[in-house]
Design a protein that fits this description.
Structural class: mainly alpha
Strand content: under 5%
Helix content: 40-55%
Number of helices: 3
Number of strands: 0
Order of helices and strands: HHH
Length: 109
């Protein structure tokens, strides 16, 4: 029983130490990330970049919202993906924005 209590105390102290370090270092990490973000924005402004490029491999993985839906299958619908990023990036769900309105005609025209 005494050994189990000692183990519990040691693990509790380690958990408290790790939790306190998380609360201590989180604000410093946020400040560093904010500085990096500002530097990235300034670089993007200087280079006149339009949007984020996720990967540089293929056109349909550079920015998913700008890719056409069939670009990944340009070699054929059953063709293997040539690029590793294509297996990581989930396909974009197409959203149908077109509506078909059917009305019954009355009378002769």
């Amino acid at each position: 029983m005494r050994r189990a209590l000692l183990t519990l105390v040691i693990f509790s102290l380690l958990a408290i130490t790790l939790a306190s370090q998380l609360f201590w270092f989180a604000p410093m990490a946020q400040k560093a990330a904010a500085k990096k973000q500002d530097a990235r924005r300034q670089l993007a402004r200087q280079l006149s970049l339009t949007d984020l490029a996720l990967w540089t491999e293929a056109r349909y993985t550079r920015h998913p919202s700008q890719a056409d839906l069939f670009a990944a299958f340009q070699d054929g619908p059953a063709a293997f993906d040539h690029f590793a990023a294509g297996s990581i990036l989930a396909p974009v769900n197409p959203q149908i924005t077109t509506r078909l309105l059917i009305q019954k005609r009355t009378g002769l025209q």
